Amino acid sequence: xxxxxxxxxxxxxxxxxxxxxxxxxxxxxxxxxxxxxxxxxxxxxxxxxxxxxxxxxxxxxxxxxxxxxxxxxxxxxxxxxxxxxxxxxxxxxxxxxxxxxxxxx
Length: 105
What we know:
Elements: H1 14-45, H2 48-74, H3 79-102
């Protein structure tokens, strides 16, 4: 046979894949719900710390979940790229939350 062999990865059973996907989807949904509640609080009171909190929660939990799922799946991004972008999002999210607590937004 000529050419390169097809590379495959064995990641476990379908039940494991479904459980991981369900866990990630649940974490994403909860993070979005918490961020929306914080944003609704900002909209009602017009207090900037609540807006920074909503942004921080979104960047800390929701965005990295999406990046870790979509980048390799849709765009075929390398593991290093996915990890760096997700970590940067988490750092910026934590910074926004710290600004909410210690800064003067």
